[in-house]
Backbone:
């Protein structure tokens, strides 16, 4: 086992949503140390220009590389949309986005090739899910739906009540009518609303939380490159943020599913 | 009447919310030409630093001054919070914010001096409503409540249904229990939800849409300085934006309460 193995996995997002990805990485790769960077000083990325998102993603990647990461996960749909190709070509470590694994998993699991994608307006308008689905399966039919209230619902912690359910019904009924059998949760906030989303979509629709195929793809990649972390430990999680946001601890812990320890404020350009 | 009178009133906001202020200006000062600048390329201001909001507000003011405005209305709570003093000292034309007129009106109309303020997290955390109320009436009791779902509800056009009502109930019941008799709508998006807010608060609570006292204060100021526009015309409204946003026309028309004509894309630094 090379000394590289003990190095951390780097994960970045513009905010705290990426902690839902960390949650699945911790569950599926418990022996991997994780270094998370939340670029809170510059959120949201969704409203920024392509160039600016690429620049910010480059800064995040540079910071994490300097900490000696062995692989990078872009845990942000906006950054995945426009910076994945660039970073995967440029960086000296393997890079994963959250869009490709979700699309691959959706196409692998769909029986009727009718696939729904819910995401923010910014992600849907970027065209990245549509392009990624079309490139891999030109015959699949997909249905995109922006669900802008889901982010504030997740952040308020209104996850499983009449308001969350009513909102989910209003957004999802049109996509349910299209008889999709698979629904990609194309925003890192949405897994928190998984329960009401599942309730509306019904038991025959499979929900894809991108974090899970992303974690599994990373595991396979590390295994193949003999980079898996030392077995038998519960590896630490370190969180760096470029600024505080309101309700940081409450939201962070809800997304991560465990208590926040070791949070460090860092400055990056 | 000086030639200054025929000049437009300048109004700016980071987004389209300020069009609810324009709506009241159009209603209460129908003979005044209005030039609106929506700095959509840089929204939201709420998450920006104080310095950055001041810089952006300065750029917006400069643009409007170059178009020959006779007065300026800062139709944005974030910019009103941190840039009003600076702009009113620096600019050669009278400047109004939206916070001061709302606070003055609330204190003038409250009988029990128990006043509620609902706004975004950013506005409440800026402390500007609390400071403004305290400076004018140290004995008044005020109750602040952030209502983050109200902005996406307004933008989605979900204004008067079960979800809007349920959300309003959850946010407003605690403030209602404080027995306020006056509630300031401290965000330019909130007047769109006025119906459900009124329904939850009940008929004995007066809602203050900042746009109305702001328009009345402007009218009085123009009258005093002999700057009122030529009588007997329905003056034009010109809208400049620094970028397009999704659903621009639908949201803009809902906020403005009339059709959008004469929208121009402009570049400002």
Residues:
């Amino acid at each position: 086992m090379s000394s590289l193995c003990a190095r951390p996995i780097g994960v970045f997002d513009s905010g705290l949503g990426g902690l839902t990805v960390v949650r699945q990485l911790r569950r599926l790769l418990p022996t991997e140390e994780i270094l998370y960077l939340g670029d809170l000083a510059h959120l949201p990325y969704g409203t920024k220009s392509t160039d600016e998102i690429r620049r910010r993603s480059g800064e995040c990647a540079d910071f994490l590389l300097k900490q000696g990461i062995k692989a990078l996960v872009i845990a942000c749909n906006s950054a995945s949309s426009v910076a994945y190709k660039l970073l995967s070509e440029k960086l000296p470590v393997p890079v994963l986005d959250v869009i490709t694994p979700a699309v691959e998993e959706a196409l692998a699991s769909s029986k009727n090739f009718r696939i729904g994608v819910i995401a923010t307006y910014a992600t849907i308008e970027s065209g990245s899910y549509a392009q990624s689905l079309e490139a891999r399966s030109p015959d699949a039919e997909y249905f995109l739906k922006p669900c802008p209230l889901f982010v504030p619902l997740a952040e308020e912690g209104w996850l499983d009540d009449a308001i969350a359910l009513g909102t989910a019904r209003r957004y999802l009924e049109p996509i349910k009518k299209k008889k999709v059998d698979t629904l990609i949760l194309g925003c890192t906030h949405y897994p928190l609303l998984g329960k009401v989303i599942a309730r509306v979509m019904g038991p025959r629709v499979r929900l894809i939380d991108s974090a899970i195929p992303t974690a599994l793809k990373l595991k396979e990649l590390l295994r193949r490159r003999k980079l898996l972390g030392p077995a038998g430990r519960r590896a630490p999680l370190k969180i760096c943020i470029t600024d505080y946001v309101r309700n940081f601890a409450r939201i962070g812990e809800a997304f991560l599913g465990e208590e926040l320890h070791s949070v460090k404020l860092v400055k990056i350009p």
Remarks:
- Residues 3-97+212-265 of chain A form a domain with the Rossmann fold fold (CATH 3.40.50.1860).
- The mean pLDDT of chain A is 93.
